[in-house]
Design brief:
Strand order of the largest sheet: 10-11-12-13-17
Distance between the termini: 5 Å
Oligomer: single chain
Mean pLDDT: 94
Radius of gyration: 17 Å
CATH architecture: 5 Propeller
Shape: globular
Strand content: over 45%
Number of helices: 3
Amino acid sequence: MKIDLIDHKELKDFPSGSGIEYFDGRIYIVGDDAANILVTNKRWAPRHSIKLFESAGKRISKKQKADLEATTLLQIDGMNYLLVMGSGSAEPRNTAIILDIKTEKFKTFDTSVFYTRLKEKGIMDLNIEGAVQVHEFLVLCNRANNTNPVNQLIITSPDFFRRQEEAPIDLLDVDLSAWEGIIGISGLTYSYEHDQLIFTTSNENTANSYEDGPIGTSYLGIVENGYRKIWRHKMKVNELIDLPGTYKEFKGHKVESVCIQSERTRSIKMHIVADDDSGESFLFKVRLRF
């Protein structure tokens, strides 16, 4: 597979881009310490913002932020929602936000019960970084680090937040053994046309889920037959594309999330959001060809 860089820009005045989703001509951008969701058109021109938290500054402090890292679009009961989830790496980060796409009204849920169950299942160093709905499943990703070297997918139901004590939980290891180093998954999306689970990764030299580290190489990963592999014990990755090795514009940026705008028989157009060590946000539009 090959990737073409169509466009890129620095996103002024919006901090720490961590999640990105596309729906009906609109792009929704989330920052892990931002107080708002930024809504733009397909060319990234700002339309408006949706206020989530009260904040005196542009960035919420590390101790107080919800650390919103995982985003996806959900279809529940025939309605479209944007799910935004905190990482769970500290107590203020046990949060899920469900935004009604049509009205832009949202509800906030405490996910402590569900996150406690994940720890009881064996995920001790919790750091939820990716989310995507794949048909009847919600797939979350717990990110690897130097101490916890395996990315794990969490398979549950899209409405888990309504019934946290009984929502199904299955764990699935992501097999990245063909590549060297610790590669942490940072975002997920799914191609219904091609049955591909597509993910972003960012490489940080960090020993745990709370501390940041120096930025390394970011990749775009592809899992073929993604839906069918959900029932396996381990999910094999078919391909990793070295983003800064392919386009210098990605160098120095920590790629955080990806979403699909449109699909054709042999290509997928996507948007990617990234940040850097100073908390600035960057956008990339790419086409994956195969």
